[in-house]
């Protein structure tokens, strides 16, 4: 794991362009690594089949088939749609050591991934993702 993406993102905008494209709340999470309050996200309790895409660039990130109810207050997934769709970075902010999840296409902050929490999932991982960092495309 790296501490920050070393290479430039395939999808890049200037700070002014990001501020124009995103709402202030979206910008705070996606571009400033903020976190939405637990239990308020649009997709926390969604059980509809479909695909979750990056709100900033549209890249597919997660699928409903890997989503599970973790009761943590944020949407939880046990695996990304494709491991190349996300980058995992060491995050030592707030006096903790965590693993940040960012979109591999635009390097926007999505949330964090945790391991060994005992959830009955195939990977024993919980990708804890901010709803505001995604859009949802229901299965046709």
From TrEMBL:
<dbReference type="InterPro" id="IPR028427">
    <property type="entry name" value="Met_Sox_Rdtase_MsrB"/>
</dbReference>
<protein>
    <recommendedName>
        <fullName>peptide-methionine (R)-S-oxide reductase</fullName>
        <ecNumber>1.8.4.12</ecNumber>
    </recommendedName>
</protein>
<keyword id="KW-0560">Oxidoreductase</keyword>
<dbReference type="GO" id="GO:0006979">
    <property type="term" value="P:response to oxidative stress"/>
</dbReference>
<keyword id="KW-0479">Metal-binding</keyword>
<keyword id="KW-0862">Zinc</keyword>
<dbReference type="InterPro" id="IPR002579">
    <property type="entry name" value="Met_Sox_Rdtase_MsrB_dom"/>
</dbReference>
<dbReference type="GO" id="GO:0030091">
    <property type="term" value="P:protein repair"/>
</dbReference>
<dbReference type="GO" id="GO:0046872">
    <property type="term" value="F:metal ion binding"/>
</dbReference>
<feature type="domain" description="MsrB">
    <location>
        <begin position="15"/>
        <end position="139"/>
    </location>
</feature>
<dbReference type="GO" id="GO:0005737">
    <property type="term" value="C:cytoplasm"/>
</dbReference>
<dbReference type="InterPro" id="IPR011057">
    <property type="entry name" value="Mss4-like_sf"/>
</dbReference>
<dbReference type="Pfam" id="PF01641">
    <property type="entry name" value="SelR"/>
</dbReference>
<dbReference type="GO" id="GO:0033743">
    <property type="term" value="F:peptide-methionine (R)-S-oxide reductase activity"/>
</dbReference>
């Amino acid at each position: 794991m790296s501490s920050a993406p070393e290479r430039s993102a395939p999808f890049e905008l200037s700070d002014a362009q990001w501020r124009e494209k995103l709402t202030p709340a979206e910008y705070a999470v996606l571009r400033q690594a903020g976190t939405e309050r637990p239990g308020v996200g649009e997709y926390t309790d969604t059980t509809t089949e479909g695909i979750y895409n990056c709100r900033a660039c549209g890249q597919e990130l997660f699928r409903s088939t890997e989503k599970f109810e973790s009761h943590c207050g944020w949407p939880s997934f046990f695996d990304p749609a494709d491991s190349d769709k996300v980058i995992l970075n060491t995050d030592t902010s707030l006096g903790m050591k965590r693993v940040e999840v960012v979109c591999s296409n635009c390097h926007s902050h999505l949330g964090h991934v945790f391991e060994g929490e005992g959830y009955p999932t195939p990977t024993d991982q919980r990708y804890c993702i901010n709803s505001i960092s995604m859009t949802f495309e229901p299965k046709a």
